[in-house]
Amino acid sequence: MAVNVCVTAGPKDPFEKTFRRFRNACERAGIVKECRKHEFFEKPSTKKNRRNQELKRAKINAKRRDEHQNMLNKRAAGMKGGVVVNVSE
Question: Does this model's pTM top 0.70?
Answer without folding.
Answer: no
